[in-house]
């Protein structure tokens, strides 16, 4: 069974880079351009893992985490935060919000895939 | 999608982000407290930085980082935006744009200005600057290679047994972690034995499936360094009780200390492999658009990226279709069928469809003038800085769409005119003050559609043209005779004369005229016209009228001598069938026509193209009134006007050779080639060839006589 990834990022370049690495590693790739769209399409895509940027229009990454982790439709799907900041503060904030892990931009394909594998059990 | 095309997309996205940045900054000027706007500006810079990092464009990342950090302070309301900071943001935005450009074109960019800007930006950060800088370094190191020490030889070869206790908390599950996967990851590192502790599982009635009851005790025999173990538990630190110790193997203390908060993932990869993983170097199978369609159902607007060549080929083919349609129409007419009523109806429908297709295809090439206009705000800023004037730019109608090529070729002339508007159009702040004007001058750029053409206006609210000075200069340069009498518009148009002004004299001049002939030529090359209106004390407006497209145009099909030709309708002001009474002979064989009381020189098209005349058009024919910058109103004499139609423009230069007075060619319905005339050039030709009696002064004498 293929592992479905939902990537939420307002940068086309980052979405492209993620698509290329993840499709190359055998993931089924879906993307959204902002937090709101990501949360909206989440039920339809029903991903095995979510990757989200923090700074985005309409709804930021923390909003995404809150939406997915809170409320009646709460899900335990792994959520990875994509961040350019590697500060501990941001990581602990993300963790407290309910994020599963983080990827520091710029990321390299190998580590990205290995992190996803660790969170989803995906095999290439 | 190959690495290169991802890179291309990155730069395309940068263009969009830079546009959004410029727009955001100008909005910030209006409403500095609107955090939505500040956020948008921040995101633009941030996204450029994020993408640039992926391509190891360190200089771009570094500058964007400084910029973003200051913007972040504004976002957090730690920093108030004043005029000085706003100006810094603008300059930083300009520089970011330069950096993107130099990264894209792989050209060198002088870094003197950059260090100055970074210094200015950092001055807003105080002590934070150093700390932030450090964090940025960590990011780049992550990418370029291992940020932390690689394990030594000893570590990697020695087999050790790790003793691991792992007790997840409820939050670990809630954050989407799966202990089983963590155990799997450990098992990948060596030989793993797992013992589950189920003692804490409560009675069935007290069992909460969301809670955490299990814990594990594991032994891992592995030659992997400890950092790899840390990595496995990286994300769950704080969400579990974890205790790792080494039971056998090289002397090492128990790892009960907090896990390294920031082990970079994948740092154990050999550098070569990391490089191989860079997107530029790989070309994995890219699954085409059908799958992609679902993935981006929303966003600003769904778009499709198409190679420009393909669009141009399509446009060309549609051009052929229009010609073909014209031919079929003509053939059917020639058949002289008795009952063609419904055939002509179908034909009319075909014609409309062909036109629809053509307009649709043209629309693909159309782009809003907004990016072009936005670039001008920078020119205004730079020119006002350089001249010590204060200016702001206002744009109107920037969503007006114009052919891509037109936009591209308009960039230089527009830059010129905008720079002139600030340099020569606007007064100095004190001058404006004493004239009772706002010390900040306004440069207004507007675009609009006007019946099949595009009108672009560049206005300033300056002092208006200094006509005395312009005339004096033109006389001094010998461009007009000293005793010439010219109307105001004629004086204004002197600016467009080649040689009116040279770059060396720019700053010494208060009038306009820096390379305006260059501007005029560029606009002409696009099939457009440029004109000036100026009101003393109120300002000056340059208006550029351009065809919507370079591929088709509306023209009159005319005959000149025996030849069928086409003349662009846009250039014709009026057509006259003259009364012989109104035609007067001047000199030996030159003629003027009296039009509502003023005399207009007649230029015979056939004579000027060197066509021998078989019909007798002397004194007869049709006169087309055209207005040119150089010669004012002129009447072109042709034999007859046959039809008005849309023609497909075919370059004569690329198919044959350039002919003076002829701008291009087209194929008519009967399959014949017809030349498309360039009225302005024709008239200039008449004056240059010397068989024109209406040198400027004689015309003036007539007019004022």
Lay out the secondary structure.
The complex is a heterodimer of chains A (124) and B (705).
Chain A: E1 4-8, H1 12-24, E2 28-32, H2 35-45, E3 49-53, H3 61-69, E4 79-83, H4 88-97, E5 101-104, H5 109-120
Parallel strand pairs in A: 1-2, 1-3, 3-4, 4-5
Chain B: H1 3-30, H2 35-54, H3 58-75, H4 83-105, H5 112-122, H6 128-144, H7 153-157, E1 160-168, H8 170-174, H9 179-187, E2 191-197, E3 215-222, H10 226-232, E4 240-248, H11 271-276, H12 289-295, H13 308-335, H14 341-365, E5 366-368, H15 370-387, E6 391-396, E7 401-403, H16 404-425, H17 429-434, E8 441-450, E9 453-460, H18 467-476, H19 488-493, H20 516-525, E10 529-535, E11 539-547, E12 552-560, E13 563-568, E14 572-576, E15 583-586, E16 590-595, E17 598-604, H21 605-609, E18 622-628, E19 632-638, E20 640-648, H22 652-655, E21 662-667, E22 673-677, H23 679-688, H24 696-704
Parallel strand pairs in B: 6-8, 13-22, 17-19
Antiparallel strand pairs in B: 1-3, 1-4, 2-3, 5-7, 8-9, 9-11, 10-11, 12-13, 12-20, 14-18, 15-16, 16-17, 18-19, 21-22
Helix pairs in contact in B: 1-2, 1-4, 2-3, 3-4, 3-5, 3-6, 4-5, 13-14, 15-16, 16-20
Give a concise summary.
The complex is a heterodimer of chains A (about 120) and B (about 700). Chain A has helices spanning about 10-25, 35-45, 60-70, 90-95, 110-120; strands at about 5-10, 30, 50-55, 80-85, 100-105.
What does it look like?
The complex is a heterodimer of chains A (124) and B (705). Helices cover 44% and strands 19% of the residues of chain A. Chain A has 124 residues and is α/β, with parallel strands linked by helices. Chain A has a single domain (4-118), classed as Rossmann fold (3-Layer(aba) Sandwich). In chain A, strands 2-1-3-4-5 form a five-stranded parallel beta sheet, sandwiched between helices. The radius of gyration of chain A is 13 Å and the shape is globular. Chain A starts with a strand and ends with a helix. Chain B has five domains: 3-144, Up-down Bundle (Four Helix Bundle (Hemerythrin (Met), subunit A)); 153-263, Alpha-Beta Plaits (2-Layer Sandwich), CATH 3.30.70; 308-366; 369-547, Histidine kinase-like ATPase, C-terminal domain (Heat Shock Protein 90, 2-Layer Sandwich), CATH 3.30.565; 552-704, OB fold (Dihydrolipoamide Acetyltransferase, E2P). In chain B, 44% of the residues lie in helices and 21% in strands. In chain B, helix 4 crosses helix 5 and helix 13 runs antiparallel to helix 14. Mean pLDDT of chain B is 76; it is low at 129-156, 251-299, 502-514 and 691-705. Chain B has 705 residues and is an alpha+beta fold. Chain B has a six-stranded mixed beta sheet with strand order 14-18-19-17-16-15. A five-stranded mixed beta sheet of chain B has the order 6-8-9-11-10. A five-stranded mixed beta sheet of chain B has the order 20-12-13-22-21. In chain B, 34% of the residues are buried. Chains A and B meet through helix 1, strand 2, helix 2, helix 4 and strand 5 of A and helix 1, helix 2, helix 6 and helix 9 of B.
